[in-house]
Amino acid sequence: MPASREVALVTGASSGLGNRFAHLLAQRGWDLIVTGRRIDLLEELRRKIEQDYAVSVQVISHDLSEANSARQLFDRIQESGDQVHVLVNNAGVGHYGQSLDQPLQSIAGMVNVNVVATTELTRLFGERMKATGGGYILQNASFSGFVALPRYSIYAATKAYIVSLGLAMRYELRKSGVSITVLCPGFAATDFFDAAGHKMTGLMRLICMDPQMIAEAGIDGLFRKRPLIVPGTIYKFCALLLRVLPRYTATAFAAAIVKDRAGRA
Question: From 3.40.30.10, 3.90.79.10, 3.20.20.70, 3.40.50.720, which CATH number describes the 6-258 domain?
Answer without folding.
Answer: 3.40.50.720
